[in-house]
Amino acid sequence: MKSYFDEAEFYANENYSNASGWSSFDQYDYFDEYNYAGGGSSSSNTNPAASLPYILNIQNTATADQANVTVLGANVNINGTNFGNPANIVITMDNGSVTYVQFLQSVISEPFRVGLMYLQSANAQQPFRQLTISYTEPNGRTVNTPITPALDPMQQQAGVTVVRHMFPVNANTEILTTILGSATLTLRLYPSEVLDISRSLVGRQVNKDFSNPPEINQQQQVTGRRGM
Known about the structure:
Layout: H1 30-33, E1 49-50, E2 54-60, E3 66-72, H2 74-77, E4 89-93, H3 100-109, E5 112-120, E6 131-136, E7 142-147, E8 160-163, E9 167-169, E10 173-179, E11 184-195, E12 207-211, E13 226-227
Parallel strand pairs: 1-12
Antiparallel strand pairs: 2-4, 2-11, 3-10, 5-8, 5-9, 5-11, 6-7, 6-10, 7-13, 11-12
């Protein structure tokens, strides 16, 4: 089964190390070193389950726009004041009883790779605000990847867009954006792969692959990339 994750044309940055602890960012390539959801390379993942999203609601309770709102960044923000954001920013999860703190804790122990982001808001302009994916390595090197969501020419919904940009998420990964005044952005992160070392205790591979979510079509998005 061919996954939509395999069709993505862009990737985070082939030169930086990732959550698995690889120490040399010059020796690894993002595509070469990760198995994609539709690759069928693992006997335990020949029929991967459909990807289910991590759903975050990011609310700005103030009437003024708030720039540099930070999502993720578990290493720094899990114990920071309001998760590294001003008091007017409220981040909650929409995955049952899971809290945002629990989600950040899971990122530390179970890093994952995003294959698709689904952005939605009652404010039709909010989903199209630029996102910046930021990653800081332990050696101090920082990679910033700006992403500008675009309206799918085939869609007929306002306030919704899909971004197909593959990137790994670990405890040093952050997503920064602007939340417009009195707006709430619902951000769905669809994982293509999750690393869980406890799977090895029952003789399974530590990486768990996922296939494309059937509710989202296959249109591609345009993103930008910048290393720093």
